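Lab notebook page, bench 4
Experiment: in silico fold of construct C2
Operator: M.H.
Input chain length: 655 residues
Purpose: comparison with the prior construct
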Amino acid sequence: MILDLVRRASAAERASKQRILLAYDIVASGVALWAAFWIRLGEPYWPWSLGVIGGALVSISAAVLALHQLHVYRIVLRYFDMRIVSRLMVAATVAAAAWVLTVYLARSSMVVGDVRIMVPRSVAFIYGGFLFMLLFLGRYAMAWLLRESVRVEDVTAQREKRKVAIYGANAAGISLADSVRKNPQYSFCGFVDDDKALHGQIVAGARIHPPERLPELARREQLKEVFLAIPNASRTQRLAAIARVRQLNLQVKTVPAPEEIVSGRFTVSDVRPIDVNDLLRREPVEPLTPLIREAVQDRSILITGAGGSIGSEICRQILRGKPRKLVLLDHSEYSLYHIDQQLAELAEGIDAEERPEVVPIVGSMLNESLVRSLIRAHGVDTVYHAAAYKHVPLLEHNEVIGVENNVIGTLVLARLAVEEKLTRFTMISTDKAVRPESVMGASKRVAELIIQALAHEPNCPTRFGIVRFGNVLDSSGSVVQRFRSQIAAGGPVTVTHPDVTRFFMSIPEATQLVLQASAMASRGEVFVLDMGDSIRIADLAKHMISLSGMTVRDDENPAGDIEIVYVGLRPGEKLFEELFVGEHTAPTEHPRIRKASERYLPLDKLQVHLGGLRRSLGEGSALGVRAMLQALIAEDKGDPDPPKLKWVAQESLQP
């Protein structure tokens, strides 16, 4: 009966529900005042003097007005929580103050028995306390009835409630627990936390259990899911928590990282399934904003490979840094169109006066006249060189076109940067350029040598820098994308070697490194982020299979879902990658970024090699190209007998 009335009231218009609350508050104010007199005098009593009645009307009106001004009537009662308490306390205080000003300043009196006395001063304090309790308890009861009416109404949903525990008794976990309790699809069963000081304690009305008790909790409460609320945990802590939950065959979901939700408050709608990014996400590296501002603000910037995975993220990061102009260069029309549309949408959130001009250009960096005209027409003073062919096995069979793009393209851009006296030139490189075994890695190392040779020329007007990093999560052609598609197809998942390892980082983190390094670069230094431990690709494959809700099929589990097949290293691949050619590195302004001034070829010697490389490229000779690459990188690899050069330089690197 009562719940039916509550449901009908809940379905009424907003104005009707506000009138119900208003009526309750008026009655609660009168009852609180009457109770205050009763408690003070020790017997039921209602003073009928005009002064007291006038004070009551004024204080009740003040309470209602305060509630209105504090927007209490706009709060959705179904989601009543403790954040409203302070507003109710203020309203009760205002009502008590209004009573004091009206009754005591007017020196109102009252008759008790046959004696006329002044209104007791303590009534105001008792009145304020009673009024606060009635305002709070009334709303709490109404909110409970509303939630109970929904719960009883949907019997099917009640039977299908999923019982969950929250891993992490912190601010994020408490916020999430509050949201779970209000969601009719879930039943909250308690917290789990690694902090021994919290074990056995109660927070947000629920007990905190140690991780060792999770199997018992899962059995007793028949848990279906565990929500990870540890957004600031280290990678090791995150992996350990995920492993504990997965061992129990429970579904595990996580709240986003702080960088994904700035507010720090989390609801059930924010929770998402565990993704490979959660497994590989490292401790956050905070960017130094002054460095990014110095590299970007008020500059006209050219980004090559602007439509690629790294280039497009560089464009997005730079746009937020308030540049004067962005010139996007890419040979792929589709990729360029896609990033141009994204930037247009992002630019809508920037004030028109600060919004940079974005100029998309379809073309190749090998076109020297095009690049020169872009630099001059748009007043370019900074270049971020992200364009490159990077697929290792593919370039093993396309040496000529790959080297022409990666090496000669860099040569064209770097020479023009010097000729046009640009301020900065930052090249994006790869860990595969360190003692390379592939054509792709060798081509990127030769491109680095070009940058380093020009940077060390006397009176070089351009500040050159090189940024190296490992594999980028979810970039085009990445192993993560391949594993994902193989798992979706039912397997098998192909891994090159059981012991192959790689470094991983996120695309936003990589691009922030690029922007910060460009501000610190001067003479061709190589900048590398402290990337932590490398990841075994076989372990990555197993984690991704597990996260997909399947099991690995192997000798220990022949009934598993997905098989992992080892296919052997592909041409040009290495078991592990390195980050520096030499061992001597130095710290930078950023505590997690190091730099190296590596071995380089002086300009006159490099010209000889590049002359021969150009000849081989012109002849389309794959063998000649490989021989010249080997000659250039032989010293990096410690080769005591590099190939003899057959050609002399055909042109100078000097402008």
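Observations: The longest helix spans residues 122-153. Residues 154-158, 258-265, 640-655 have pLDDT under 50 and may be disordered.
Next step: discuss at group meeting.
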